[in-house]
Specification:
The complex is a heterodimer of chains A (1017) and B (463). Chain A is mostly beta strands and 1017 residues long. Helix content of chain A is 9%, strand content 48%. Chain A has a 22-stranded antiparallel beta barrel. In chain B, the strands form four sheets. A two-stranded antiparallel sheet of chain B has the order 2-4. The longest helix of chain B is centred in the first third of the chain and has 26 residues, at 132-157. Classes of the chains: A mainly beta (1017), B mainly alpha (463).
Chain lengths: 1017, 463
């Protein structure tokens, strides 16, 4: 492998070291529009090379080029201008307005394309839009801005992951996360955390949002098939900022704000309310002759101290809240360039506190993007991002008693949070005081991430470019916990601690050859061949133990009793060859795209290691046809279509092998055991996607948008096929089963007013997706192997993880007992849960409809932006209702319940939602009462600001000064009044190990209000 | 000029082509590393490899879903010894007979033991390096584990105490065998398979290779055979199997003075086989001990399994076994304080076969076959500070079994095989009712995952 690495590097080094002398000189000039006004931001490239720049604020530019080379000037809404470099060093250009206003260059993966040349479904979101959401992890800023894309934050804890689904879910038990690509190189996303019990930490949180120029989302096969076996779920391309030639621009971006929970959430019972319900429960159970007798007994027993102290209310929700939690983000950048080079450098800092005590996120980051023309036709560029993150995590993914988030539910209201002197009350019992624990225990995630991306291009002949890329994504992760020996769970074992380290390294090498062939003005070809090699190696080591000699010690070395040591090593490798052709005829009137990728992946056995992926795409720009060319009202009209085969290989490593594992031990000695059933035949699941669409711009682009229809058949699903447990295994991963997603997307934008003083635009998108399993494996009797849990069922004819459970029939007004329909639908009811049939409840946890709405308004220097998001058509299930949301012994005698429980049955005739209270400990019974419609609308961002006029700034030496007030998640509307929690939940099945869409006790999203300033000089 | 250009062009193209070929990835270069596991095929080459997997199979037994907790706790909470106070929400479903096919239990774990045992049993020892007689001994041990797992499955899921006919559980004798979708064997077929495995095991094993009480040994085969024979009333077999163990002279009853303390240490003279647990295993909250009691006196941790108040009345004041019991929460909750005493970590070994049970099995089998049961029965009382019985009766023996084996997971099966009705309680020890014998609820439901994956599997009656 080492020799291989050396060879992969060879072309890279060869290019770095080669010298070639050209008569390159510096060209400068200014670019103006039709009216002679300077045009800032005009893109200037030396045709056939990768060197390019943009005009500055005053429309001026500087670029290096040789005589005879062609400079291409392009700008949105203007006709592209080409000028051949002559003897003069000044090239001034006046641009003309172009009706084809969609001509924007979009990064589409291994290539960049003009908007009109794109044959697939591609959406670009620029930095301005992304910046409207202040979040550590940029994926959350996509919510509402891309049609067909759903974003579900898994938690409101700062730095947590979000689930992104593009056009539904393509796989049942393999991964559904899209592929992330930063500056052309695939990178790792997802949670870096080692312990699923604690808050997740997103790898993407390591990328400072203010360094991102734009994000492009690739949705269809023609756009994604170039990424082979990892692109069935869509691709998200992140382009970082680069410098522009000209004088150095310094930029300061700062915001500081305060956050609180975006929703109130369930309100716990007060001690007085709980006493009343508990008294009824004891009476109903026949323990006492009357409710009053029961209350008297309780007041003499567990409630005596509370009663004697004047019946104080503990208000745990207030005790654990971190009101007006701080969120702040600051960045400082410098960008510019000179003779043959450009650069962008930045420093950033972000801090976000959680809305409960004991959790926060902090990041410091830096970046340096540098590009240098080594010779007239060799360019070296390097993009580097580095960050260090700290997350004060906590136990939040289950009903952990020590979590401050769950304290208001799991702590009895009879326990008071504080002593009279203000210190945390150290009460006994099964639920220790989290206020003490957050002060004295530790659970910290730390991640250092360095992404370095280095590229050399060599324009070695007319139209030919050879390039070589070498990328490293290094993630150094550390996780540690400590429970103090004085109080809480660490007390019986004299304290405990653990510490884990993971080094995760990704390498990517790419060598490619581009050839741009212009037969004549009417026929243009772009060829690309590329080879790629990727490797990931993951090293993990850690240990845990207990028994400290003294308080204040937290490290493993001080532990008396080591209880575990763990290690692991995993790796995967991908090798690929890619060929792409784009044919563009008659100034992009007709466009044809072909791509083919052959990829080998270490996740599959030798005989099935290589797979083929391909796509065909075509576009017809009708507005360039003679019959529409003179149309007054059609500026752009494109019909496009694509079909292709893409893959998904998101399964654990080494699954094809039948394995004996040795990670267990017995009686102090190592032990072997059958660990993986294995399947030599394992290979990719494939998606066959049809995408057709129309892009349009009408009435001088006052109305623009697109419509797209897609139909994606996923075949040979990588499915954890249930095995008879008599094999010793519960499942075997096989390529079997089929799944379909189809739907449509509409994007539309209205430029209502657009003049010098005022602009108003309104944009929106709506998407619908229908997900259905079309085929599942069968056993030898021809019976379909469904997968059923207490909440969901996987069965053909239904969406994946469709909700499946008995149907609640309400509380019987005569008896006060909860009842269910015997047949699961209607008619006869029963109070014996085990007699009620489970049925499909309609839908799953993934939204079938999503929509976004954007409003942008400006008047003179003032501006207002708003973004809203709607998700609907899905359902979510409330977890933990047995302990918190049923009138049984758990909330009434041990923990605490929600105040909705007061709507309970007391006497015959009562029509209520909650049955008669009992002190019994009911078994887990999951049914439709706790399944809610999850439709919601959220005002994601609202920004009001003011740009100080540039004339006023000149005197103080500034080029830009903006003040703004920004609110995130200011309003949330939830359709179902009975849904007390935030409807945004984790929709990931974690490779089929959990039911997606259960509401846990995670942190809800935060509502924040921040003040900010942007300064350029 | 044109010619030069063309040459340069060819040169460049060939350089690129050569470089591309050099960096080409081959199928082999994409091989993943196996760092901590081994390929199942071809990695059993030595007798010691069998020992490694045998330990792995023992480790499956120690899981909280099997003998690490649930196997013992589920039986106790369904008996007249214990109920669940629901302090952590655990075992109320089992204790109140509310389980359904979604309620997990030991089905998967038991078949996992069987799968690993089958890999050992079906290996051709003559192809292995090392002491082949030792290899056969290890295969015998694997047969015992396979028999134990089949017996556990049968007593949990078999229909012998329900109304569903003669359905047992599938007998599996091969890993990745011909039939991956087995249907259920009859109760008798499973029983016969268990006896066969145990007899074969006893014949293959050599006591000189037995070095540890934490690995099943030769006489465990006979102890298990006696246990199964008592369960099914095969009394002659129970007599002879018990006599083999007793006749070995390797084990003895723990005397009264050290009975309670014997639970605090491992490998006592009375132990035939116990599962190894250590501080390093750190069962934590999933420990059997943690479900029997709170870590401190006050309600905390789990401690869901509480002892029914009148159980303490079974014991005379002089009986040392009364000291196994104790109170928590200011003297209000009767507890198992003495068996598996390490509450926070669960580092005590869990004995699965001890000599006292063998003696009690022997006594009962003698009673049923007309032998001298009383002598055997009073071997127990005389070593516990209890008054000796004046006569051996079925009731006396069952009572003595209840007292001696309390909290070890035997009582529910004793009630079943003698056809008793089962009382059950709510979380505040309020009597909820009595399940009458026979009853569909006495057999656990076949798990939903099994039924969905294998349509040959018949569900149990009533679920």
């Amino acid at each position: 492998m080492r020799a291989k690495l050396a060879w992969m590097l060879a072309p890279f080094l060869v290019l770095c070291m080669s010298f070639s002398y050209g008569q390159e000189k510096t060209i400068s000039g200014s670019v103006t529009d039709q009216g002679g006004l300077p045009l800032p931001g005009v893109s200037i490239v030396v045709v056939g090379t990768s060197s390019g720049t943009q005009t500055d604020f005053d429309g001026n530019y500087v670029i290096s080029a040789s005589e005879g080379q062609v400079l291409r000037f392009s700008y949105i809404g203007q006709k592209t201008v080409e000028r051949t470099v002559g003897t003069s060093t000044t090239v001034n250009v006046q641009m003309e307005e172009d009706a084809q206003a969609l001509e924007e260059v979009v990064v589409t993966g291994y290539t960049s394309q003009r908007r009109s040349d794109i044959t697939g479904s591609v959406v670009k979101v620029d930095s301005e839009k992304l910046g409207e959401i202040i979040t550590p992890s940029v994926d959350q800023a996509l919510q509402g801005n891309v049609s067909g894309l759903t974003v579900s934050a898994t938690s409101g804890t700062p730095g947590s992951t979000a689930n992104i689904r593009i056009r539904g879910i393509s796989s049942v038990t393999a991964g559904n996360e899209p592929l992330y690509v930063i500056d052309g190189v695939p990178v790792n996303s997802g949670s870096v955390g080692t312990d699923g019990a604690y808050s997740s930490l997103s790898a993407l949180a390591g990328i400072d949002q203010t360094n991102i120029e734009s994000i492009t989302v690739l949705k269809d096969a023609s756009a994604t098939s170039q990424y082979g076996a990892r692109d069935s779920n869509g691709v998200i391309l992140i382009t970082t900022k680069s410098g522009r030639a000209g004088k150095t621009v310094f930029s300061i971006n700062s915001s500081y704000g305060f956050q609180n929970d975006a929703i109130t959430g369930p309100v716990p019972l007060t001690a007085a309310q709980r006493l009343e319900l508990a008294s009824e429960a004891y009476f109903n159970d026949g323990i006492f002759g009357s409710k009053q007798d029961a209350m008297d007994a309780l007041l003499a027993g567990p409630y005596a101290e509370w009663d004697a102290n004047g019946r104080p209310e503990a208000r745990w929700d207030r005790a654990v809240a971190n009101r007006d939690a701080i969120i702040q983000q600051h960045s400082f950048s410098a960008s510019g360039g000179g003779e043959g080079h450009t650069f962008f450098a930045s420093l950033g800092y972000m801090q976000q506190e959680a809305t409960v005590v004991g959790s926060e996120f902090e990041r410091i980051s830096g970046s340096l993007n540098f590009s240098k023309d080594l010779t007239k036709n060799i360019t070296f560029s390097t993009n580097n991002q580095a960050s260090h993150m700290y997350q004060d995590a906590y136990l939040e993914t289950s009903a952990y008693f020590e979590s401050p988030r769950t304290a208001k539910f799991f702590l009895s209201p009879l326990l008071t949070p504080f002593n009279p002197d203000g210190t945390p009350n150290q009460f006994g019992g099964s639920t220790p005081n989290p206020l003490y624990l957050v002060e004295n225990n530790v659970s910290d995630n730390r991640l250092t991430r360095i992404v370095t991306n280095n590229n050399v291009t060599w324009d070695f002949a007319k139209g030919f470019t050879f390039g070589s890329t070498f990328n490293v994504d290094l993630q150094l992760y550390n996780f540690r916990t400590y429970s103090n020996p004085e109080y809480g769970y660490g007390e019986p074992t004299s304290g405990d601690a653990s510490q884990y380290d993971r080094t995760n390294v990704f390498y990517v090498f790419q060598n490619y050859l581009d050839y741009a062939l212009e037969l004549n003005e009417d026929h243009r070809f772009d060829f690309k061949v590329l080879q790629e090699y990727q490797a990931n190696r993951r090293y993990f080591v850690g240990g845990a133990g207990q028994s400290f000699a003294d308080g204040g010690l937290q490290n493993l070395d001080n532990l008396g009793t080591p209880t575990s040591i763990n290690s692991s090593f995993n790796d995967w490798y991908v090798g690929a060859y890619l060929g792409m052709v784009k044919y563009s005829a008659f100034d992009s009137r007709y466009v044809l795209d072909l791509s083919y990728r052959r990829e080998g992946n270490s996740r599959f056995s030798k005989k099935n290691r290589w797979g083929n992926f391909w796509s065909v795409g075509a576009a017809w720009n009708l507005n360039k046809e003679s019959f529409l060319a003179d149309s007054e009202w059609i500026n752009a009209l494109k019909l496009r279509g694509s079909y292709g085969v893409t893959g998904n290989a998101l399964i654990d490593t080494n699954q094809f092998q039948s394995l004996i594992g040795f990670s267990n031990d017995y009686a102090g000695e190592g032990a072997g055991y059958l660990s993986t059933f294995g399947n030599e035949d394992l290979t990719w699941e494939t998606s066959h996607t049809l995408d057709v669409g129309v892009d349009f711009g009408l009435f001088n682009n006052a109305v623009s948008g697109s419509f797209a229809y897609f139909n994606r058949d996923s075949k040979d699903l990588l499915l954890q096929v249930p095995l008879s447990r008599t094999t010793g295994f519960t499942s075997q991963i096989q390529n079997i089963g089929e799944l379909n997603n189809k739907g449509f997307e509409v994007d539309i934008n209205f430029n209502i007013i657009n003049n010098d003083d005022m602009s108003l635009s309104l944009g929106g998108n709506i998407s619908k997706v229908k997900n259905e399993i079309t085929k599942l494996p069968t056993d030898p009797n021809g019976v379909e192997s469904t997968i059923t849990t207490v909440r969901t069922r996987i069965e053909s004819g239904h969406p994946a993880y469709a909700w499946y459970m008995p149907t609640w029939a309400g509380v019987n007004p005569d008896t006060g007992q909860e009842e269910w329909y015997v047949n699961g639908v209607d008619g006869a009811t029963t109070n014996n849960f085990n007699d009620a049939e489970a049925v499909f409840q309609g839908g799953n946890a993934v939204p079938t409809t999503t929509a976004g709405l954007n409003l942008n308004f400006s008047y003179k220097g003032f501006f207002l932006n708003a973004t809203g998001y709607y998700a609907g058509g899905h359902k979510v299930y409330e977890g933990w209702h047995l302990y918190l949301h049923q009138n049984n012994g758990y909330p009434l005698t041990v923990y605490n319940g929600y105040n909705t429980l007061l709507d309970r049955w007391q006497q015959p005739g009562d029509n209520v939602r909650y049955g008669a209270p009992t002190t019994g400990g009911e078994p887990w019974q999951r049914h439709s009462k706790f399944l809610y419609d999850a439709d919601f609308i959220r005002l994601r961002a609202l920004t009001v600001g003011y740009d100080v006029p540039s004339k006023a700034l000149e005197n103080v030496g500034l080029t830009k000064l903006r003040f703004f007030v920004r609110g995130n998640n200011l309003l949330t509307w939830v359709k179902d009044d009975n849904l007390l929690y935030d409807p945004e939940v984790d929709v990931d099945s974690q490779n089929g190990t959990v039911d997606p869409g259960e509401i846990g006790l995670e942190t809800p999203p935060a509502r924040s209000i921040s003040l900010g300033v942007n300064i350029n000089f | 000029m044109r010619k030069r250009m063309t040459n340069k062009f060819k040169y460049i193209l060939s350089v690129v082509a050569v470089l591309s070929m050099l960096v080409a990835c081959t199928t082999d270069s994409l091989d993943p590393t196996l760092a901590q596991s081994k390929n199942a095929e071809g990695s059993i080459t030595k007798v010691d490899n069998l020992y490694s997997i045998l330990k792995g199979a023992h480790n499956v037994l120690t899981g909280a879903g099997y003998y690490g907790r649930d196997m013992i706790a589920t039986n106790e909470v369904r008996s007249d010894n214990c109920f669940s106070n629901g302090n952590s929400g655990r075992f109320t479903t089992q204790g109140e007979f509310e389980y359904n096919s979604n309620t997990g239990f030991m089905w998967e774990e038991a078949y996992e033991v069987i799968a690993n045992a089958n890999v050992i049993i079906n290996t051709d020892v003559t192809t292995l390096e090392g002491d082949q007689a030792y290899g056969q001994h290890l295969q015998g041990a694997a047969l015992i584990l396979r028999a134990l797992a089949h017996y556990d499955l049968l007593r949990v899921y078999g229909q012998q105490h329900a109304e569903g006919g003669n359905l047992g559980v599938p007998i599996v004798t091969e890993f990745k065998g011909e039939d991956l979708y087995p249907s259920r064997n009859t109760i008798d077929e499973v029983k016969t398979a268990i006896y066969n495995d145990l007899q074969t095991a006893f014949g293959m094993m050599d006591s000189s290779y037995d070095s540890s009480k934490t690995i099943v040994s030769k006489f465990v085969a006979k102890a298990l055979e006696a246990r199964v024979a008592v369960y099914f009333g095969d009394w002659d077999r129970a007599v002879s199997a018990s006599e083999e163990v007793i006749g070995s002279g390797m084990y003895s009853i723990i005397p009264a003075g050290s009975f309670v303390d014997s639970w605090k240490s491992d490998g006592g003279a009375n132990v035939l086989f116990e599962l190894a647990f250590s501080e390093a295993d750190n069962q934590g909250p999933n420990a059997l001990s943690y479900i029997y009691r709170y870590p401190a006196d006050a309600p905390g941790g789990y401690g869901d399994l509480q002892v029914v108040d009148d159980v303490i009345d079974l014991f005379e004041a002089t009986d040392v076994r009364i000291d196994i019991l104790g109170y928590q929460d200011g003297g209000t909750r009767l507890r198992n304080m003495g068996k598996y005493p390490d509450t926070p970590v669960g580092a005590d070994n869990i004995p699965l076969f001890r000599y006292e049970e063998v003696v009690l099995n022997y006594a009962e089998a003698l009673l049923e076959t007309g032998g001298d049961a009383l002598t055997q029965l009073n071997l127990i009382t005389s070593n516990r500070g209890a008054t000796p019985y004046v006569s051996a009766t079925k009731d006396n023996i069952l009572l003595e079994r209840r007292k001696e084996l309390m909290f070890e997971g035997f009582r529910f099966d004793d009630m079943m095989r003698t056809g008793m009705d089962v009382p059950y309680w709510g979380t505040i020890q309020n009597l909820l009712g009595t399940q009458s014998y026979p009853n569909n609820l006495f057999a656990y439901p076949i798990p939903i995952g099994e039924l969905n994956a294998n349509s040959n599997m018949e569900p149990n009656e009533g679920y």
